[in-house]
Amino acid sequence: MVDENTNAGGQPLEEALIKAREAQRRVTDGRWVRLFDHFKREWQIYAMLLPTIIWFVVFLYKPMYGLQIAFKDYSIFRGVADSPWIGWEHFQTLFANDQFIRAVRNTITISFYNLLFGFPAPIILALMFNEVMHATYKRTAQTIVYLPHFISSVIIAGIVITAFSPTAGIINTFIGWLGFDPVYFLTQPQWFRPIFVGTGIWQEAGFGSIVFLAAIAGVNPSLYESAVVDGANRWQMMWKITIPSILPTILIMLIIRIGNVMEVSFELVILLYQPSTYETADVVNTWIYRQGLQSGQYDLAAAAGLFNAVVAFVLVMTANTLSRRFSRTSLW
Amino acid sequence: MSGVNLSGIVKAYGALQVVHGIDLTVAEKEFVVLVGPSGCGKSTTLRMIAGLEEITDGDLTIHDRRVNRVAPKDRDVAMVFQNYALYPHLNVADNMAFGLRIRKMPKAEIKTTIADVAEILGLTPYLDRRPADLSGGQRQRVAMGRAIVRHPKVFLFDEPLSNLDAKLRTQMRAEIKRLHNRLGVTSVYVTHDQVEAMTLADRIVVMNDGRIEQVGTPMELFNNPANTFVAGFLGSPPMNQMKGMLTETGAKIGDAEIKINGAVAGHAGRDVIVGIRPEHVTLSDEGQSSALPISLDLVEPLGSEALLHARHGEDTLVFKADTNGDIAHLSGVGAVHVPSHLVKLFDAETGRALNLGT
């Protein structure tokens, strides 16, 4: 029988523990050596990673240095470092500014509509494509809906402006055929949001469906076969197998989308809005553009930008935590 | 009344025919195993029975009803898949209840059925768990539970144990057998593992290249293989097959001659394949046997017995020998003794078994 103070080899336990600790220490001492060996062995992979790291540093981390002007009375002649600190003054100015508050409200409203109508669109499209059996028809339809993604926002805006033109636009032509007067869609505030959200869906839903189509392709085919034997029809299979199976992908995409809630497509807004529609169209980014670049209030614009980033950060953290808690799916 | 009847069943994908008109009758409550190498058409045949593959030609009846064009859900079959096909987002209870809910069974009845089947399969403590939180064996049980709860007329198993480790496979094999004895449902089971086939089947169907090579009980197939393919497929290690020529009293294999029981005299000079099961030889002459000289390559100890890898002329052979707790005495083996009544003969050209009155 083995004594409880000795191990199976007859060694006293204490001695065995010391040896184990020494062995562990030796492993720890060798960590840097192993790390160096690892880099030496896998340097090609790190070389491929380098451009991305450089991009992050140059375009995302280095500009963070300039964020401090949100708390300074910034002067381009004094520079970032020498401009005097003024604390939260710019933020107080921002929240006292009706136009900024309106921009925040517009941003949230447009994002909400984008989320409500724009987020499910590619999922529905992917589910529909998944049900199409005719390969040629499927490929053709996919190509057609992917195309708008590859068209520049300027062209997209041009198409929208032309389509909604009160004189020659196709929409107003139809309205005219129905005996109604032409509607000045792009100058009336109440039409901006539907047109903007609809354009976004038209431009991105097809391309966005690729992610969900890939997720659907990853669903184990025997789940469907099993369901067929169990008596499920295609509708039941979609609801009970396909959608739950791609739910982790849907949640990840939703978290990413929520993180971009404050980033309403700046280019498209700039291209489609005009002073008469500012009431519903002016978003935080366009307000920052006008204040920062056009009026030269860089410090105030930086404060607005920082506010945008903080809200987005809080939203993405919350969404990620909720998703992890309730569905075991999260970005990190 | 037959459980399942396949008559001239053909499956073709365009010009490529993969199942060539097979005929098979599975009696009610019978456990039939389709066995064969990969690509032999066994899974395709099973999937045609399930309704997951269209039947190109022939007739399929389940309980005397022609079901060629009947939807899978209306065939009253349940299938257990190789990779379990459990819904990852549902817990064990919901997985088992899936088919019942689709069929709109009352909730109370579903609950009772699930509880009963979970009890039979030992799944009661795991009903709230998701498949990802179960071991391979538990998942396999859930897959079987999902089939059982529907009380189908026919169970179809598509290599259900191939994803399990060897130990678990042995356990689950026994559980499937016990379950079949208890439920008495007609079962068609596909595997490429001849041990599974031998241990589970009431009857084995050996398939090769889209055709049935032989149908029979495990021991019929083991003792009297219809051809060299079946002889080489069933048995572990498989039957040794050597080219030979019949003589007045037996068969000449290279320089050696072994005696064979039966009327071989009239066939002297005929080219044959001589089949000897590895476990049928002895190391000493025990009467009515002939010595077959061998050149020993390797001895593989398995515990109570050992595998002797040897050569005779150009033939590579494997034999089994008792170790009696030691393999030292096996290293000097220069010949094995072949009992004359256990030698099998096959036609050298067609590979079919020769019945010469042995």
TrEMBL record, chain A:
GO annotation terms (biological process): transmembrane transport
Gene Ontology, cellular component aspect: plasma membrane
Transmembrane segments: 43-61, 110-129, 150-180, 200-220, 241-259, 300-322
InterPro entries: MetI-like, MetI-like_sf, UgpAE/MalFG_permease
Tree of life domain: Bacteria
UniProt subcellular location: Cell membrane
Xref: PANTHER family: BLL4140 PROTEIN
Protein name, per record: Carbohydrate ABC transporter membrane protein 1 (CUT1 family)
Automatic annotation (TrEMBL), chain B:
MF terms (GO), sorted A to Z: ABC-type transporter activity; ATP binding; ATP hydrolysis activity
GO cellular component annotations of the record: ATP-binding cassette (ABC) transporter complex, substrate-binding subunit-containing
Keyword presence, ATP-binding: yes
SUPFAM superfamilies on file: MOP-like, P-loop containing nucleoside triphosphate hydrolases
Transmembrane regions listed in the UniProt entry: none
Pfam families for this protein: ABC_tran (PF00005), OB_MalK (PF17912)
InterPro entries: AAA+_ATPase (IPR003593), ABC_transporter-like_ATP-bd (IPR003439), ABC_transporter-like_CS (IPR017871), ABC_transpr_MalK-like (IPR015855), ABC_transpr_MalK/UgpC-like (IPR047641), Mo/tungstate-bd_C_term_dom (IPR008995), NA-bd_OB-fold (IPR012340), OB_MalK-like (IPR040582)
UniProt keywords, alphabetically: ATP-binding, Nucleotide-binding, Transport
Biological processes, Gene Ontology terms: carbohydrate transport
Domain ABC transporter stretches: 4-234
Keyword Nucleotide-binding: yes
Signal peptide feature range: none
Family: Belongs to the ABC transporter superfamily.
The protein's name in its UniProt record: Carbohydrate ABC transporter ATP-binding protein (CUT1 family)
Lineage, uppermost ranks: Bacteria, Pseudomonadati, Pseudomonadota, Alphaproteobacteria, Rhodobacterales
